[in-house]
Fold this sequence. Notes:
The structure is a single chain. Helix content is 30%, strand content 21%. By secondary structure, it is an alpha+beta fold. A hairpin with a 5-residue loop joins strand 1 and strand 2. 14% of the residues are buried. The model has no long low-confidence stretch (mean pLDDT 79). The site of zinc ion (ZN) has 8 residues, from loops.
Amino acid sequence: MEKNNKNFSLMLRGTRTFICDNCGHKFKGGDFEWNCTAFSAPLKCPKCGSFHTYPYSSSGDIFGWIFGSDKSIYEDIWKTMDEQHNNIDNE
Length: 91
Ligand SMILES: [Zn+2]
């Protein structure tokens, strides 16, 4: 995540635990703001290499509440990331 992408606006807020939607692996990583929203930018899973990850939180956490109520938000983010990655590959 060191490389700045012109299409992303990332701001580091600290670290948090993420969970991989692909393999279920939990890992700690940098908590980056996703395009100036309250959501955390998905990080690449260190185990399987997928970036379809989302912040994992215990109940009572505000992010857990947001995420638990609407996973489609992260599915949209993943879709955007897929498109961004395709653009990078084509350059
Ligand atoms: Zn994984």
